[in-house]
């Protein structure tokens, strides 16, 4: 996705850096200047971890959340939709990007 021009801000409490970018322990730890530019939260976590991520996404008013393949949490997805967030669930963002843009 970086090769297609997307900036990826890694969020993972177990790492300090990924893909040449500083990693943050949670969405809430991303500096405000960067958070304001986030269009999408892309989730590669176990389904039981998604509730907290959705709550942070709602609180930060991020417009979209994408749950990768096998990341299925209907309750969290419903909560996000009720908050006006666009939700994609159980799909790979890279595969979908390639299918549409080559």
Characterization of this structure:
By secondary structure, the chain is an alpha/beta fold. The protein has a domain at 31-101: 3-Layer(aba) Sandwich (Rossmann fold), CATH 3.40.50. The protein is 31% helix and 15% strand. The protein has 4 helices and 5 strands, in the order E-E-H-E-H-E-H-E-H. Strands 3-4-5 form a 3-stranded parallel sheet, with helices on one face. A two-stranded antiparallel sheet has the order 1-2. Helix 2 links the parallel strand 3 and strand 4. Helix 2 (50-59) runs parallel beside helix 3. The longest helix is centred in the middle third of the chain and has 10 residues, at 50-59. The protein is globular, with a radius of gyration of 13 Å. 16% of the residues are buried. The mean pLDDT is 95.
């Amino acid at each position: 996705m970086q090769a297609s021009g997307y900036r990826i801000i890694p969020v993972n409490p177990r790492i300090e850096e990924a893909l040449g970018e500083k990693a943050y322990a949670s969405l809430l730890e991303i500096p405000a200047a960067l958070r304001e530019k986030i269009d999408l939260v892309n989730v590669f976590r176990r389904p039981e971890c998604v509730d907290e991520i959705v709550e942070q996404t709602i609180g930060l008013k991020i417009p979209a959340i994408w749950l990768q393949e096998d990341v299925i949490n209907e309750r969290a997805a419903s909560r996000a939709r009720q908050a006006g967030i666009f939700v994609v669930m159980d799909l790979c963002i890279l595969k979908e990007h390639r299918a549409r843009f080559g």
